[in-house]
């Protein structure tokens, strides 16, 4: 077989090596990629050092807002924010969980980084809607039925909850069937349904059973409320009944379509 000619070998060599301009562009592109990669690595390393290794972005203050009964210092003590640590490494979820676990008065808390040196704790405290007497003290109960704090004096405008669990009969049966927690939530629901004018005068929310909840108002007046169901309708009916019989001492809205009043 005849070998290739010198001209053919030259053509193949030129084709394999490519034009000089193409080779130069390929080398420039490679150098650019290497330079960009090195630059990215240096920038990332610098950012990591600034966040975790430098003294520039470390925690030196904790700001607390939204407290009413709690003090900012109480919140700081329980939060245990690590002062002097890199701000980026602070576990905000752990701080939030610790505050809600140890300070039951806190309903919600927003833990946020405040660059470059702070942590902010925005607290929302629970609001009592009922009180449960416990010996000489009182337990505050919020709108979700959570018992969250013990106080030594009753709060003006917050009704006292009486669970008639010590009474024989229906109260005991209702307690076994529904559980104390559900009965408390039913009482809370009733308290939340009361019109403002009635709520202000309510002294006691009494629970004999799930279907037998009553109110004691100022002026020796009582309201038979029944169950916690149809609370809005019962509230409107009670207001109308009080206007129609202003001297009455007993009101019954347990069946809101057939209300009644008595006494004078």
Summarize the structure in short.
By secondary structure, the protein is of the alpha/beta class. It has helices at 6-17, 20-53, 72-79, 92-102, 170-193, 196-201, 231-244, and strands at 61-65, 106-114, 118-125, 130-134, 137-141, 147-151, 160-163, 202-209, 212-217, 221-226, 250-252, 260-262.
Describe the protein's topology:
Blueprint: H1 6-17, H2 20-53, E1 61-65, H3 72-79, H4 92-102, E2 106-114, E3 118-125, E4 130-134, E5 137-141, E6 147-151, E7 160-163, H5 170-193, H6 196-201, E8 202-209, E9 212-217, E10 221-226, H7 231-244, E11 250-252, E12 260-262
Parallel strand pairs: 1-3, 4-7, 7-8, 10-11
Antiparallel strand pairs: 2-3, 4-5, 5-6, 8-9, 9-10, 11-12
Structure description:
By secondary structure, the protein is an alpha/beta fold. The protein folds into two domains: 61-125, membrane protein fhac (Ubiquitin-like (UB roll), Roll); 130-262, Rossmann fold (3-Layer(aba) Sandwich). It has seven helices and twelve strands. Strands 6-5-4-7-8-9-10-11-12 form a nine-stranded mixed beta sheet. It has a three-stranded mixed beta sheet with strand order 1-3-2.
Question: What key phrases describe this protein's structure?
Answer:
264 residues, alpha/beta, Rossmann fold, 2 domains
Q: Mean pLDDT, nearest integer?
A: 84
End-to-end C-alpha gap? 132 Å
Number of helices: 7
Backbone structural class = alpha/beta
Give the topology string: H per helix, E per strand. HHEHHEEEEEEHHEEEHEE
Helix percent reads 40-55%
- Give the strand line-up of the largest sheet: 6-5-4-7-8-9-10-11-12
- Could you tell me the CATH topology label of the largest domain: Rossmann fold
Strand residue content: 25-35%
CATH architectural designation of the largest domain: 3-Layer(aba) Sandwich
- The total count of strands amounts to 12
CATH class identity of the largest domain:
Alpha Beta
What is the gyration radius calculated from CA atoms? 36 Å
Question: Which sheet architecture does the biggest sheet show?
Answer: 9 strands, mixed
* Low-pLDDT stretches: none
Write down the overall geometry.
elongated
Number of domains: 2
């Amino acid at each position: 077989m005849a070998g290739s000619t010198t001209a053919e070998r030259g053509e193949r060599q030129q084709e394999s090596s490519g034009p000089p301009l193409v080779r130069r562009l390929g080398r420039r592109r490679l150098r650019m990629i290497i330079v960009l990669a090195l630059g990215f690595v240096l920038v990332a390393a610098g950012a990591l050092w600034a966040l975790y290794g430098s003294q520039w972005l470390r925690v030196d203050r904790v700001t607390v807002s939204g407290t009413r009964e709690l003090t900012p210092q109480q919140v700081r003590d329980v939060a245990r924010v690590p002062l002097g640590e890199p701000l980026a490494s602070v576990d905000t979820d752990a701080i939030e969980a610790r505050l809600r676990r140890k300070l039951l008065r806190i309903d919600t808390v927003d833990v946020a980084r405040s660059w470059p040196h702070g942590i902010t704790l925005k607290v929302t405290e629970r609001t009592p809607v009922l009180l449960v007497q416990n010996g000489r003290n009182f337990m505050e109960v919020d709108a979700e039925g959570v018992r969250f704090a013990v106080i030594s004096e009753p709060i003006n405008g917050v009704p006292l909850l009486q669970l008639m669990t010590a009474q024989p009969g229906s109260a005991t049966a209702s307690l076994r069937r529904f559980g104390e927690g559900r009965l408390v939530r039913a009482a809370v629901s009733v308290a939340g349904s009361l019109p403002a004018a009635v709520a202000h005068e309510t002294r006691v929310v009494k629970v004999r059973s799930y279907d037998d909840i009553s109110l004691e108002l100022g002026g020796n007046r009582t309201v038979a409320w029944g169950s916690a169901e149809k609370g809005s309708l019962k509230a409107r009916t009670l207001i109308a009944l009080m206007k129609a019989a202003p001297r009455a001492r007993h009101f019954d809205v347990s069946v809101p379509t057939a209300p009644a009043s008595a006494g004078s």
